[in-house]
Write a structure and sequence with these properties.
The complex is a heterodimer of chains A (253) and B (526).
Chain A lengths: L1 E12 L2 E12 L3 E5 L6 H9 L6 E6 L2 E2 L10 E5 L10 H13 L2 H14 L15 H13 L5 E5 L7 H18 L2 E6 L2 H7 L2 E6 L2 E6 L1 H6 L4 H22 L4
Parallel strand pairs in A: 3-8, 3-9, 6-7, 7-8
Antiparallel strand pairs in A: 1-2, 1-4, 4-5, 9-10
Helix pairs in contact in A: 2-3, 2-4
Chain B lengths: L1 H27 L4 H8 L1 H34 L5 H8 L7 H12 L4 H6 L6 H25 L4 H8 L4 H30 L2 H6 L6 H11 L3 H24 L19 H30 E2 L6 E2 L2 H8 L2 H32 L3 H12 L5 H11 L9 H11 L2 H13 L4 H7 L4 H9 L4 H17 L15 H10 L3 H30 L8
Antiparallel strand pairs in B: 1-2
The chains are: A alpha/beta (253), B mainly alpha (526).
Chain lengths: 253, 526
C-alpha cells in the first residue's frame, strides 16, 4: 500500500530551482533513503514533506489524503535531526514523555509508554540523565525514542547519524533497522553517506541538482546505474574505499 | 507562523511608539533658526571644547587603568579573581553624580583631604577624575571579556616561530584585543561625553555640553536649543555604533578553549597585585567618604558623630523615594526583560525582513544618550496620559537600557538549538509552550543577567529621568542631585549608600541563585 505520494513537486527560491518537478512514492513500512551531495535539494525536500516549507507547485498525498497545505502538526510525521535537538533542561525520560504528556493528557500512561520506548532503544540505564551527561550516540537514541513514542506514520531523518563516530554509527544503524522491522513505521532517511543509505534502505533515491537520477533497490542502483551521474557517484565512492584499504594494508587490490 | 508574525508586528509597533515617535516629534519642533546663533555663542563653543577635552583625557586614562586591571586578572598569578572582579565593578552600582559627590567629600573646597593638602580639584581635573572613576569598570568588563576570546593556542605557535614578547603581543594579543579596546574607548568616551552627573557636582564654573543642555532645559525651558545640543551629544555614540557594527572581529569563538599558560614572574605579580589593590582601595575610599559624611556632622570644621543627616533624610519622606526607585526599577526590569526577550526571540529565530528592521532599531537605541531620550519623551509625550506618571519613567528606562540586555538575549538565543520550533510543530506543541518549557529554562542565566542590568541601571540613572519626574514620582538618584545642589553632602551620601545597598542586594541574590543552579548544570550543552 502506498503511504506517501509526491507528484510534480517543484521548489524555486528567487528563480533558482531547488527541486525540479519530482515525483515518487513511498510504500507503507518502507525504508527509503534520499542520497545526494550537499546542495542537491534533499533538505528542502524534507522541509516540504514535514510541512515547514511550502512547495512552489506540486502535491503531496498521504494515505490518499492531500496534505500539501496541511499544517505540520497535523501530518502525523516525526523528525530526527543531526544535532539531536534534545531539550537540555529535561532528562532523557522527560524528553521522551514531554510531548506525549500533552498529547495524551495522562501522565501515567505517557510515562509508561516512554519507558517502553526507551527500553526498546537500550536506554533504560540512562533514564534520569540530562542530555549533556549522555554521549552523542545515546543522545540520538533519546531523540529517536522521542519521535517514535508519538507513534507517527512516517519518520524523517535529517543526516541523523553524521555527527556520530564510526563505531556508534554502526551500532545505531543496526538498532534502527531492527526497530523499523519491529514497528513497521515508514522511514525516510536523508543522508550524503552512501554506505548508510545502501545498508539501511529498502530503496535509495539519488538526488542531483533537484532531479531524481534514480530510485531503486540498493543492489539495482549499484549494478544498473540509471545515468552516468549515478555510475560516477557510486564508483567514485568505491574507488575511494579501495584506495583507503590499499593504503592501510599495503595490499595492492 | 501566524503567532510569530503577530509578535514581530507587536514589537515593531512598540518600538516605533517608544523610540521613533518621540525622536521625530522632538526634531520636528526644533526651531532651526536657533542653530547658527547657538553655534556662534561663546558659551556653547566653550562647553563643546570642554567636553571634547574632558572626554579625550578621561577616556585615555580610564581605558589604560581598565586594560591593566584586565591584564592582571587574566595574565598574572593573582588569587581570588572572581572577588576582585566583583570589587572592581562596584562603581557601576552608584550614580555618576555620586562619584562627583565622593570627590567633593574628599577633595572639594572643604574636603577631608583638600584641607590637608591645601588645594581642591573643583573644575576640569575634578571632572576628569570623577569620569574615570565611574567609567573604568565598563572598559574593564569589555577588555576582560576580550581576553577570554583570545585563541591561546596561538601563543604556542608564536613561540615555535621564535617571536619575541613584543612581536607576540602585537601579532596575537593585540590582534584579538584591538576590537574590544577600541569598543571600550568609544563606549567610555560616549559615556563621559554625555554624562552630566559628575560635571554638575564637581565642575564648578567649568561647563560641559551635557550641563549646558541641562541648564538650557531645566533652567530656561529652552527645548529647541536643548535638542540641538542633544544632537551634538549623539555624534560620538553614532560613530561608536558604526565602528562596532562594521569593524572586523577576529575573536569568533570558534576554537577550543585552551587555558593560557601564565608564566612564573614574581615581580610582575607583585607589581600588578599592588596596582589592582590600589584601584580597589580608591573605590572604597570614595564609598568610605559617604559613610563618613553620613555619620559625621559638620565634617570640615568641627567633626562630631551625629545622626542628624539620617534624621533629616527620614523626616523628608525617604520611604516614598525608596518606594519610587524600587517601583520604577523593578517594573522596568520585569517589563524590560520580557519585551527584550521576545524582541531577541524574534530577531534571532524568525526569518524575514521585519525581524531585521527590529534588530537595527533596537541596537540603534544605543546611540541615543539618556538626556536626549529624556528630552524627546518630554516633548513627544507631553499631554498624553502617561505624562507625569510612573509609566513614562518606566518606559524611558526600558528604552534607555534596552540595547545591552537585548544583545545578551540575542546571543543566548542564537546558541539555542534552531530545531526546537520544528520539533514542537511536528509534535503539535504550541510556540509559547515550547518557549516556556524549553527556551526560557535553557537561557535562565541570561534572563537573570538582563533583569539585573535593567535594575541596577534604573536605580542609578539620572540622565533620562531628569526631565520626566515630578514630586510624586521622583526617584532616589535625583534626590542626590537635589541634596548636593543645596550642599547637603551628608544627606546626599546617605542616598548614595541606599542605592548602593539595594544594588548589592540584588546582585547578591542573583549570584546565589546562579550558584545554586550551577549544581545541576545543564546549560553548558544545548
Amino acid at each position: 500500500m502506498v503511504n506517501l505520494e509526491v507528484k510534480n513537486l517543484t521548489k524555486k527560491y528567487n528563480n533558482k530551482t531547488v527541486l525540479n518537478n519530482i515525483s515518487f512514492e513511498v510504500k507503507n513500512g518502507e525504508f527509503l533513503s534520499i542520497l545526494g551531495p550537499s546542495g542537491c535539494g534533499k533538505t528542502t525536500l524534507l522541509k516540504i514533506l514535514i510541512g515547514i516549507e511550502t512547495a512552489t507547485s506540486g502535491t503531496i498525498i498521504k494515505d490518499n489524503k492531500n496534505i500539501t497545505n496541511l499544517d505540520a502538526s497535523k501530518r502525523g510525521m516525526g523528525i530526527v535531526f543531526q544535532n539531536y535537538a534534545l531539550f537540555p533542561n529535561m532528562t532523557a525520560l522527560e524528553n521522551v514523555s514531554y510531548a506525549l504528556n500533552i498529547k495524551l493528557k495522562d501522565r501515567k500512561k505517557a510515562k509508561e509508554n516512554s519507558l517502553k520506548m526507551l527500553e526498546m532503544i537500550n536506554m533504560t540505564e540512562h533514564l534520569n540523565k540530562y542530555p549533556h551527561e549522555l554521549s552523542g550516540g545515546q543522545q540520538q537514541r533519546v531523540a529517536i525514542a522521542r519521535t517514535l513514542v508519538l507513534n507517527p506514520d512516517i519518520i524523517l531523518f535529517d543526516e541523523a547519524m553524521s555527527a556520530l563516530d564510526a563505531d556508534n554509527r554502526l551500532h545505531l544503524r543496526r538498532e534502527l533497522k531492527e526497530i523499523q522491522k519491529k514497528l513497521k513505521t515508514t522511514m525516510i532517511y536523508i543522508t550524503h553517506d552512501q554506505e548508510e543509505a545502501f545498508s539501511l534502505s529498502d530503496r535509495v533515491m539519488i538526488l542531483n541538482n533537484g532531479n531524481i537520477e534514480q530510485i531503486d533497490k540498493p543492489n539495482i542502483v549499484f549494478n544498473k546505474p540509471a545515468s552516468e551521474y549515478v555510475k560516477n557517484f557510486v564508483t567514485n565512492h568505491l574507488i575511494e574505499k579501495v584506495n583507503s584499504i590499499e593504503k592501510c594494508t599495503g595490499i595492492d587490490l | 507562523m501566524k503567532n510569530r508574525s503577530k509578535l514581530s508586528l507587536f514589537i515593531l509597533v512598540f518600538l516605533s511608539i517608544s523610540v521613533l515617535f518621540p525622536l521625530i516629534e522632538m526634531l520636528i519642533r526644533v526651531d532651526w533658526s536657533d542653530f547658527s546663533s547657538l553655534i556662534k555663542s561663546i558659551s556653547f563653543q566653550e562647553a563643546l571644547t570642554n567636553s571634547i577635552y574632558i572626554g579625550f583625557v578621561a577616556t585615555i586614562i580610564s581605558v589604560l587603568i581598565a586594560y591593566f586591571l584586565a591584564y592582571t586578572l587574566n595574565r598574572t598569578n593573582i588569587k581570588h579573581r572572581a572577588i576582585l572582579k566583583m570589587l572592581i565593578t562596584i562603581p557601576m552600582l552608584i550614580p555618576s553624580i555620586s562619584h562627583g559627590l565622593g570627590l567633593i567629600n574628599l577633595f572639594g573646597t572643604n574636603g577631608i583631604i583638600s584641607k590637608i593638602i591645601g588645594f581642591n580639584i573643583i573644575g576640569p581635573s575634578g571632572i576628569i577624575i570623577g569620569s574615570i572613576l565611574y567609567s573604568f569598570p565598563v572598559a574593564f568588563l569589555m577588555i576582560d571579556d576580550g581576553f577570554k576570546y583570545i585563541d591561546n593556542s596561538l601563543y604556542a605557535s608564536a613561540k615555535i616561530l621564535g617571536l619575541n614578547k613584543w612581536q607576540t603581543f602585537k601579532k596575537v594579543t593585540f590582534c584579538y584585543l584591538k576590537k574590544p579596546i577600541f569598543s571600550a574607548i568609544f563606549a567610555v568616551f560616549t559615556m563621559i561625553f554625555t554624562d552630566y552627573g559628575v560635571p554638575l557636582a564637581v565642575g564648578g564654573k567649568f561647563v560641559t555640553l551635557p550641563v549646558f543642555l541641562y541648564k538650557e532645559v531645566i533652567g530656561l525651558l529652552n527645548y529647541s536649543t536643548g535638542t540641538i545640543v542633544g544632537l551634538f551629544l549623539l555624534i560620538p555614540a553614532f560613530i561608536s555604533f558604526i565602528f562596532d557594527n562594521f569593524s572586523k572581529d577576529y575573536s569568533n569563538g570558534d576554537f577550543e578553549g585552551n587555558e593560557y599558560n601564565i608564566t612564573e614572574n614574581k615581580i610582575r605579580d607583585i607589581i600588578f597585585k599592588i596596582y589592582t589593590y590600589l584601584i580597589i582601595i580608591i573605590v572604597f575610599v570614595i564609598i568610605g567618604s559617604f559613610v563618613y559624611y553620613a555619620i559625621i556632622d559638620n565634617p570640615s570644621l568641627n567633626p562630631v558623630l551625629s545622626l542628624k543627616h539620617f534624621e533629616y533624610v527620614s523626616s523628608n519622606d525617604i520611604v516614598k523615594f525608596i518606594f519610587n526607585s524600587l517601583f520604577i526599577a523593578i517594573s522596568a526590569s520585569i517589563l524590560g526583560t520580557i519585551i527584550t526577550y521576545f524582541t531577541a526571540y524574534v530577531t534571532a529565530r524568525v526569518k524575514g525582513i521585519l525581524p531585521k528592521i527590529i534588530h537595527i532599531l533596537t541596537i540603534l537605541s544605543l546611540t541615543i544618550p539618556g538626556m536626549v531620550l529624556g528630552l524627546s519623551y518630554t516633548i513627544g509625550f507631553s499631554g498624553t496620559f502617561i505624562y507625569n506618571t510612573f509609566m513614562i519613567l518606566i518606559l524611558v528606562n526600558i528604552i534607555h537600557f534596552i540595547a545591552s540586555p537585548y544583545l545578551m538575549a540575542y546571543n543566548a538565543m542564537q546558541k539555542v538549538n534552531p530545531n526546537y520550533e520544528i520539533i514542537a510543530k511536528t509534535c503539535n506543541i504550541s510556540l509559547f509552550k515550547i518557549i516556556k518549557d524549553v527556551i526560557i529554562p535553557s537561557t535562565k542565566t541570561t534572563i537573570r543577567e538582563m533583569f539585573a542590568y535593567f535594575f541596577v541601571n534604573s536605580m542609578v540613572t539620572i540622565s533620562a529621568v531628569a526631565f520626566l519626574f515630578n514630586t510624586k514620582t521622583m526617584p532616589l538618584s535625583l534626590l542626590i542631585n537635589n541634596y548636593e545642589g543645596n550642599m547637603m553632602l551628608g544627606e546626599a551620601a546617605i542616598i548614595s549608600l541606599i542605592i548602593l545597598l539595594f544594588n548589592i542586594l540584588l546582585k547578591g541574590i542573583i549570584y546565589l541563585i546562579n550558584r545554586k543552579e550551577d549544581k545541576k548544570k545543564y546549560e553548558a550543552i544545548i
